[in-house]
Amino acid sequence: MGKTTVSTRYAKALFQLSSSNNNSEQVLKELKIVSSTIKREDKLFKMVVNPTIKNNTKQSVFTGLFSREVGSVTMKFLNLVIAKGRASCLLDIIEKYEDIYNIDKNISVVEVVSAEPIPAEIKETIKEKARVNGGEILLKEKIDKKLIGGIVIKRGDLQYDASIRKKINSAKRAFKL
After folding, report:
1. Model pTM?
2. Same-domain status, 115 and 161
3. pLDDT value at position 132?
4. Which of 27, 54, 100, 156 lies in disulfide reach of 18, CB 3.0 to 4.6 Å?
């Protein structure tokens, strides 16, 4: 079974549990704390993905780090994932949970990549244009100096690339003909 399939199954199970307890939003916030901590702390990330470290060691580290920051449902879920030997999938599971949550709450994630920070009025315009089905728009902004200028907007499988880098690459290809 692939990593994505496993991650999706665990994420769906956690979402069903948290939805039945009416705390799916709280669980998402707690999972984001766990995710950001793992990404921020290099030693923790290496421990999570290292298969030679025993699961009970990982569980005790997680309990020590997160027991005061996350609720019982999230803590039990983290311990279950580790006990089943799926700790290396944890970040992917959290990402899948967020995707499932967003679909359930009718939230569309729009990623905006630009060379410089985008002004607030342009962000609002992007949100308005991206709002197709009346749902909420979650704008994720990234800065990429390689774009040189312009903007790349991604929503699901769609991408609008109005960057200077793309225009330069297109011109290079045109002259190679």
Report:
1. 0.82
2. yes
3. 75
4. 27
